[in-house]
Protein backbone atom coordinates (compact mmCIF):
# COMPACT_ATOMS: atom_id res chain seq x y z
CA UNK A 1 0.00 0.00 0.00
CA UNK A 2 1.32 3.45 -0.91
CA UNK A 3 2.10 5.96 1.83
CA UNK A 4 -0.71 8.26 0.65
CA UNK A 5 -3.26 5.45 0.98
CA UNK A 6 -2.01 4.58 4.46
CA UNK A 7 -2.39 8.22 5.50
CA UNK A 8 -5.92 8.38 4.12
CA UNK A 9 -6.93 5.18 5.91
CA UNK A 10 -5.59 6.38 9.25
CA UNK A 11 -7.08 9.85 8.81
CA UNK A 12 -10.49 8.40 7.97
CA UNK A 13 -10.36 6.16 11.05
CA UNK A 14 -9.59 9.12 13.30
CA UNK A 15 -12.28 11.32 11.73
CA UNK A 16 -14.84 8.56 12.29
CA UNK A 17 -14.13 8.68 16.03
CA UNK A 18 -13.15 12.30 16.71
CA UNK A 19 -15.50 15.18 15.96
CA UNK A 20 -13.01 18.01 16.47
CA UNK A 21 -10.86 19.28 13.58
CA UNK A 22 -7.45 20.28 14.99
CA UNK A 23 -5.58 23.28 13.59
CA UNK A 24 -2.51 22.87 15.83
CA UNK A 25 -0.41 19.75 16.34
CA UNK A 26 1.86 19.15 19.33
CA UNK A 27 4.67 16.60 19.70
CA UNK A 28 5.93 15.99 23.24
CA UNK A 29 9.55 15.04 23.86
CA UNK A 30 11.33 12.97 26.51
CA UNK A 31 10.04 13.62 30.02
CA UNK A 32 7.57 16.24 28.80
CA UNK A 33 4.41 14.14 28.75
CA UNK A 34 2.76 16.01 31.60
CA UNK A 35 2.12 18.89 29.24
CA UNK A 36 -0.91 16.90 28.09
CA UNK A 37 -2.52 17.80 31.43
CA UNK A 38 -2.75 21.38 30.18
CA UNK A 39 -5.16 20.31 27.44
CA UNK A 40 -8.92 20.21 27.88
CA UNK A 41 -9.16 16.62 26.64
CA UNK A 42 -12.11 15.75 24.44
CA UNK A 43 -10.93 12.47 22.87
CA UNK A 44 -8.02 10.04 23.16
CA UNK A 45 -6.89 7.30 20.80
CA UNK A 46 -4.18 4.77 21.62
CA UNK A 47 -1.50 4.35 18.97
CA UNK A 48 -2.18 0.62 18.96
CA UNK A 49 -5.64 1.14 17.48
CA UNK A 50 -4.60 3.54 14.73
CA UNK A 51 -4.04 2.03 11.26
CA UNK A 52 -0.35 2.02 10.22
CA UNK A 53 0.82 3.73 13.43
CA UNK A 54 3.79 2.27 15.25
CA UNK A 55 4.44 2.59 18.98
CA UNK A 56 7.19 4.15 21.07
CA UNK A 57 9.49 1.80 22.98
CA UNK A 58 11.32 4.51 24.91
CA UNK A 59 10.82 5.27 28.60
CA UNK A 60 9.30 8.70 29.10
CA UNK A 61 7.12 8.53 25.98
CA UNK A 62 3.43 7.72 26.14
CA UNK A 63 1.45 6.12 23.36
CA UNK A 64 -1.69 8.02 22.43
CA UNK A 65 -3.13 10.85 20.39
CA UNK A 66 -4.95 13.42 22.49
CA UNK A 67 -7.58 15.71 21.00
CA UNK A 68 -8.86 18.75 22.84
CA UNK A 69 -8.65 22.48 23.38
CA UNK A 70 -5.75 24.64 24.48
CA UNK A 71 -5.57 28.41 24.35
CA UNK A 72 -8.97 28.45 22.66
CA UNK A 73 -7.68 26.32 19.76
CA UNK A 74 -8.44 22.76 18.69
CA UNK A 75 -5.26 20.72 19.11
CA UNK A 76 -4.01 17.20 18.56
CA UNK A 77 -1.14 16.12 20.76
CA UNK A 78 1.24 13.19 20.37
CA UNK A 79 1.93 11.92 23.86
CA UNK A 80 5.06 10.02 22.92
CA UNK A 81 7.01 10.23 19.66
CA UNK A 82 8.89 7.69 17.54
CA UNK A 83 12.64 7.72 16.94
CA UNK A 84 14.75 6.39 14.10
CA UNK A 85 17.15 4.77 16.61
CA UNK A 86 14.33 2.52 17.85
CA UNK A 87 14.54 0.71 14.54
CA UNK A 88 11.58 2.44 12.95
CA UNK A 89 11.77 3.62 9.36
CA UNK A 90 11.70 7.35 8.65
CA UNK A 91 8.25 6.81 7.14
CA UNK A 92 7.03 5.41 10.47
CA UNK A 93 8.76 8.14 12.49
CA UNK A 94 7.06 10.91 10.52
CA UNK A 95 3.77 9.18 9.73
CA UNK A 96 1.88 10.97 12.55
CA UNK A 97 2.87 14.34 11.07
CA UNK A 98 1.49 13.24 7.71
CA UNK A 99 -1.78 12.29 9.37
CA UNK A 100 -1.90 15.64 11.19
CA UNK A 101 -1.51 17.35 7.81
CA UNK A 102 -4.62 15.64 6.45
CA UNK A 103 -6.55 16.23 9.67
CA UNK A 104 -6.16 19.95 8.98
CA UNK A 105 -3.21 20.91 11.18
CA UNK A 106 -1.57 24.14 10.02
CA UNK A 107 0.91 24.76 12.85
CA UNK A 108 3.15 22.13 14.46
CA UNK A 109 4.60 22.70 17.94
CA UNK A 110 7.54 20.41 18.73
CA UNK A 111 9.35 19.88 22.05
CA UNK A 112 12.40 17.86 22.98
CA UNK A 113 15.09 17.38 25.60
CA UNK A 114 18.60 18.14 24.36
CA UNK A 115 22.22 18.57 25.34
CA UNK A 116 23.33 22.18 25.55
CA UNK A 117 26.45 23.38 23.72
CA UNK A 118 26.03 27.14 23.86
CA UNK A 119 28.26 28.89 26.41
CA UNK A 120 26.15 30.31 29.21
CA UNK A 121 23.49 27.62 29.08
CA UNK A 122 22.41 25.86 32.28
CA UNK A 123 20.46 22.67 32.84
CA UNK A 124 16.75 23.38 33.15
CA UNK A 125 16.74 26.33 30.79
CA UNK A 126 15.02 26.28 27.41
CA UNK A 127 16.10 27.07 23.87
CA UNK A 128 13.71 28.27 21.20
CA UNK A 129 14.93 26.60 18.02
CA UNK A 130 15.64 28.96 15.13
CA UNK A 131 17.31 26.49 12.73
CA UNK A 132 18.66 22.95 12.55
CA UNK A 133 21.52 20.88 11.18
CA UNK A 134 20.44 17.45 9.99
CA UNK A 135 23.02 14.75 10.80
CA UNK A 136 20.62 11.83 10.94
CA UNK A 137 21.49 8.78 8.89
CA UNK A 138 18.38 8.83 6.70
CA UNK A 139 16.31 11.61 5.15
CA UNK A 140 12.53 11.36 5.55
CA UNK A 141 11.88 12.56 1.98
CA UNK A 142 14.27 10.11 0.30
CA UNK A 143 12.64 8.18 -2.53
CA UNK A 144 9.93 8.93 -5.07
CA UNK A 145 8.03 12.08 -4.22
CA UNK A 146 4.23 12.15 -4.06
CA UNK A 147 3.02 15.62 -5.06
CA UNK A 148 -0.17 15.04 -3.06
CA UNK A 149 1.99 15.25 0.08
CA UNK A 150 4.30 18.09 -0.91
CA UNK A 151 6.86 19.31 -3.46
CA UNK A 152 9.95 17.36 -4.54
CA UNK A 153 12.32 20.01 -3.18
CA UNK A 154 10.73 21.79 -0.20
CA UNK A 155 12.25 25.12 0.83
CA UNK A 156 13.82 25.08 4.31
CA UNK A 157 14.99 28.69 4.68
CA UNK A 158 11.99 29.33 6.90
CA UNK A 159 11.79 25.90 8.50
CA UNK A 160 11.13 27.48 11.90
CA UNK A 161 8.54 30.21 11.53
CA UNK A 162 10.01 33.63 12.31
CA UNK A 163 6.73 35.13 13.52
CA UNK A 164 6.16 32.25 15.94
CA UNK A 165 9.77 32.50 17.15
CA UNK A 166 9.27 36.20 17.83
CA UNK A 167 6.07 35.48 19.75
CA UNK A 168 7.92 32.88 21.82
CA UNK A 169 10.74 35.33 22.56
CA UNK A 170 8.28 38.04 23.59
CA UNK A 171 6.33 35.67 25.85
CA UNK A 172 9.46 34.31 27.56
CA UNK A 173 10.84 37.83 28.04
CA UNK A 174 7.58 39.14 29.48
CA UNK A 175 7.42 36.22 31.92
CA UNK A 176 11.03 36.75 33.03
CA UNK A 177 12.04 33.28 31.85
CA UNK A 178 15.73 32.61 31.22
CA UNK A 179 15.85 31.29 27.67
CA UNK A 180 18.12 30.95 24.66
CA UNK A 181 17.64 30.85 20.91
CA UNK A 182 19.76 28.71 18.64
CA UNK A 183 20.41 25.90 16.22
CA UNK A 184 19.47 22.30 17.00
CA UNK A 185 21.68 19.48 15.73
CA UNK A 186 19.72 16.31 14.97
CA UNK A 187 21.71 13.08 15.31
CA UNK A 188 20.71 9.43 15.06
CA UNK A 189 21.55 8.17 18.57
CA UNK A 190 20.97 6.27 20.76
CA UNK A 191 24.38 6.97 22.34
CA UNK A 192 24.93 10.27 24.07
CA UNK A 193 27.69 12.35 22.51
CA UNK A 194 31.40 12.12 23.27
CA UNK A 195 33.23 15.30 24.34
CA UNK A 196 34.79 15.52 20.88
CA UNK A 197 31.38 15.21 19.21
CA UNK A 198 29.90 17.95 21.41
CA UNK A 199 32.83 20.21 20.46
CA UNK A 200 32.49 19.35 16.78
CA UNK A 201 28.76 20.09 16.74
CA UNK A 202 29.36 23.38 18.52
CA UNK A 203 32.08 24.41 16.08
CA UNK A 204 29.84 23.65 13.09
CA UNK A 205 27.23 26.04 14.48
CA UNK A 206 25.09 23.94 16.81
CA UNK A 207 23.75 25.17 20.15
CA UNK A 208 21.93 22.02 21.31
CA UNK A 209 21.92 18.40 20.17
CA UNK A 210 19.29 15.67 20.28
CA UNK A 211 17.96 12.53 18.61
CA UNK A 212 14.58 13.68 17.29
CA UNK A 213 12.66 16.68 15.92
CA UNK A 214 14.46 17.17 12.57
CA UNK A 215 12.57 14.44 10.65
CA UNK A 216 9.19 15.69 11.91
CA UNK A 217 10.05 19.29 11.05
CA UNK A 218 11.17 18.36 7.53
CA UNK A 219 7.94 16.48 6.86
CA UNK A 220 5.84 19.25 8.41
CA UNK A 221 7.46 21.76 6.05
CA UNK A 222 7.00 19.35 3.14
CA UNK A 223 3.29 19.42 3.98
CA UNK A 224 3.12 23.20 4.25
CA UNK A 225 2.87 23.54 8.03
CA UNK A 226 4.39 26.34 10.09
CA UNK A 227 6.70 25.08 12.87
CA UNK A 228 7.58 26.28 16.36
CA UNK A 229 10.05 24.15 18.33
CA UNK A 230 11.59 24.34 21.77
CA UNK A 231 14.28 22.35 23.59
CA UNK A 232 14.60 21.77 27.31
CA UNK A 233 18.32 21.70 28.15
CA UNK A 234 18.67 18.50 30.16
CA UNK A 235 22.48 18.31 30.21
CA UNK A 236 25.53 20.37 29.22
CA UNK A 237 28.11 18.96 26.78
CA UNK A 238 30.17 22.01 25.85
CA UNK A 239 32.39 23.79 26.87
CA UNK A 240 34.07 20.65 28.21
CA UNK A 241 34.90 22.17 31.60
CA UNK A 242 31.16 22.68 32.19
CA UNK A 243 30.17 19.22 30.95
CA UNK A 244 28.00 17.14 33.26
CA UNK A 245 30.01 14.48 35.05
CA UNK A 246 27.34 11.87 34.38
CA UNK A 247 24.46 11.59 31.94
CA UNK A 248 21.80 8.91 31.48
CA UNK A 249 18.31 8.71 30.04
CA UNK A 250 16.83 8.72 33.55
CA UNK A 251 18.69 11.95 34.33
CA UNK A 252 17.43 13.48 31.08
CA UNK A 253 13.85 12.56 32.02
CA UNK A 254 14.25 14.07 35.50
CA UNK A 255 15.74 17.33 34.25
CA UNK A 256 13.21 17.66 31.46
CA UNK A 257 10.29 17.06 33.81
CA UNK A 258 11.61 19.70 36.21
CA UNK A 259 11.78 22.26 33.40
CA UNK A 260 8.44 21.32 31.90
CA UNK A 261 6.47 24.22 33.46
CA UNK A 262 8.74 26.71 31.69
CA UNK A 263 8.34 25.01 28.34
CA UNK A 264 4.59 24.67 28.88
CA UNK A 265 4.18 28.37 29.63
CA UNK A 266 5.91 29.38 26.39
CA UNK A 267 4.06 26.89 24.19
CA UNK A 268 0.68 27.81 25.72
CA UNK A 269 1.46 31.48 25.21
CA UNK A 270 2.40 30.99 21.57
CA UNK A 271 -0.74 28.90 20.88
CA UNK A 272 -2.93 31.52 22.57
CA UNK A 273 -1.38 34.25 20.38
CA UNK A 274 -2.02 32.47 17.07
In short:
The chain has 274 residues and is of the alpha/beta class.
Strand content: 15-25%
CATH class annotation: Alpha Beta
CATH fold node name: Rossmann fold
Question: What does the main sheet amount to?
Answer: 5 strands, mixed, barrel
Structural class: alpha/beta
How many β-strand stretches?
9
Distance between the amino and carboxyl termini: 37 Å
Mean pLDDT: 90
Number of helices: 6
* Share of residues in helices: 25-40%
Multimeric status of the protein: single chain
Low-confidence sequence ranges: none
CATH architecture: 3-Layer(aba) Sandwich
Lateral strand order in the biggest sheet = 5-8-7-6-9
Radius of gyration, rounded? Answer: 17 Å
Q: CATH-wise, what's the superfamily?
A: Nucleoside phosphorylase domain
Q: How many discrete structural domains?
A: 1
Anisotropy-based shape: globular
The ordered string of helix (H) and strand (E) elements is HEEEEHEEHEHEHEH
Report on the structure:
The structure is a single chain. This protein is an alpha/beta fold. It has a single domain (3-273), classed as Rossmann fold (3-Layer(aba) Sandwich). Helices cover 31% and strands 24% of the residues. The protein has six helices and nine strands, in the order H-E-E-E-E-H-E-E-H-E-H-E-H-E-H. It has helices at residues 3-17, 90-103, 162-174, 195-203, 214-222, 249-273; strands spanning 24-27, 40-46, 64-70, 73-79, 107-116, 126-134, 179-186, 208-210, 226-236. It has a five-stranded mixed barrel with strand order 5-8-7-6-9, surrounded by four helices. Helix 1 packs across helix 2 and helix 2 (90-103) crosses helix 5 (214-222). The longest helix has 25 residues, at 249-273. The chain is globular.
Amino acid sequence: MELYDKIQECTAYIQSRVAEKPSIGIILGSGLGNFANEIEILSELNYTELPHFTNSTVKGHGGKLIFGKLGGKNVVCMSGRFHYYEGHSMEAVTFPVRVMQFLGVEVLMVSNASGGMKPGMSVGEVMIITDHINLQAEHPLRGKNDERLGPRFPEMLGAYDKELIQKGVEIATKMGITFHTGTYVGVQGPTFETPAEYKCFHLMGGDAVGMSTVPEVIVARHGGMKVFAISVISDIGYPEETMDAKISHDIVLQKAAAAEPIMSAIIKGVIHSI
